Amino acid sequence: MSAHAGPCALRRAVPLLWPGILALAVTLRAQQAPDPPPPAAQPTPPPAAYGLLLRGEEAEAFLRTADVVKKKPIGKGITNPYQLTLSDGTRTLKAAWKTIDKSKFGVTQFDRGGFEVNFRDTYKFEIAAYELDKILGFELVPPTVERQIGSEKGSVQLWVEGATTEWDRRKKKVRPPDTEAWNRQIYNVRLIHQLTYNTDYTNISNTLSDPSFKVYAIDFSRAFRTYDTLLAEKELVRFSRFALDRLKALDRETLAERLGPWLTKVEIEGLLKRRDRILALAARLVAEKGEAEVLLP
Asked: What does the alpha-carbon distance between residue 221 and residue 121 come to, in Å, rounded to a whole number?
């Protein structure tokens, strides 16, 4: 612009300069403004305080070695179990303690009717059920170990926190949100009861579920009979392919190694014969009804 430009020329030029001036101001302001603070870190949610608070070898080691802080009767069950409070100095958890170990040869008559030959009711079967469940991969039986407390030996089983019995769930008419996932678990509960010949299988208070509807099976002290028949074949109507594959993989050597400390050879043989009957039943049902009606993915 000429130095001799008059006032009119200046008035015409100033509006043309405003956009550039505003852009420069915005740029300078952005360069001078401090970076915004990073978003606050979100706290890690605490682990779920229900179900099994420990699993696997960690749970087993805790159950074997943690100090007994408290002991009180559970108040339910004919085997007079106790609830223990255990602590290792860092964690304090509850467990079920069972010491019953009875054997009666010959015929035993029951007060509520019926009889049994060579009756056994023992804490050792609780441990055998857990070890069998580990082999099968069902994740139904809570961690259970043998332990001596004072002068008594027994089974210590990790407590299922926040659990509801199946009897209570049905009474309250609480429906699981995922029926397919629920049924898959219940089919496996029925299978393990028939496989172990658990004579308490009809007691639905021995089937538990936590708030996430994870299912657990407890109380096998009257299981592992020597019979080669099934208690209630009608209980087995559907099977997962995974469960059948795991049953097929069971072998005498593995069972003797893992269950041998808790079961006799005759009891292991009975288990294998019932396994064969279950596999034969599944094959028969598939032939009669088709895979879609019998086998789960």
From this structure: 5
